[in-house]
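Q: I have 253 residues here and want to know how they pack in 3D. Can you give me a structure?
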Amino acid sequence: MNQRQKDHRTPLFEIRDLHVAVEKKEILHGVSLKIFPGEVHAVMGRNGSGKTTLAYTLMGHPKYQVLSGSIFLNGEDITQCDVVERARKRLFLGFQYPVALPGVTVANFLRASIRSVRGEEVPFREVRKLIKSEIEKLNVPEAFMKRSLNEGFSGGEKKRLETLQMRLLQPHLAVLDETDSGLDIDALRTISQSINEMRDNHRSFLLITHYQRMLDYIKADQVHVFLNGKIVESGGPELAQKLETEGYEWASV
């Protein structure tokens, strides 16, 4: 399918000229992006370039003020939707540093997440069956279900649990903020394989990362260079290789 044919389709996700401020300081300066069904896009940039601000804004974090611009999911303007509404519309955010919730077991957290996104009670047996099926695919020990969420877990274990949550919630768009951060090679392979298994014509991914290494396992349809709060260059997978070998100096604005 050529670019002209693709542009006649409705994007699964679209950002239009997004300007965002944090504590009255503008961080994003006109971000625009289209992601079509089934695509994986990667956003790569230095520390402090605004990548995490973009991720949190897309999920509706109240700290991030949209000054202008719009966010669309499945053709619907979700710019004014809160976090819960966006989650129920099947938008998912994977955090760079998943937080610990002492006293909240992994199993109860996952059940609550499924219930919240579906907007209704889900039979216990159905949830248990779903969880059991998915933890085997991610090599997550069943004993983890009784532990407090992320308390005492390694970085790789936290990311596996977050990937488990993503698989259970079945989002239309998953925004993954530096999912590869702190992962050993085995965890990186397992999580990348899980993302590849989830790819289909109705689901897309936005990977936010510093490095090219996750893209060794997940083929991106588009790579975007993010600097100073905006996209300054877009291209195919070869762009990630160029960043790996040449850094960001050539793309500085």
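Q: Anything worth noting?
A: The chain has one domain: 3-99+171-251. The two ends are 32 Å apart (CA to CA).
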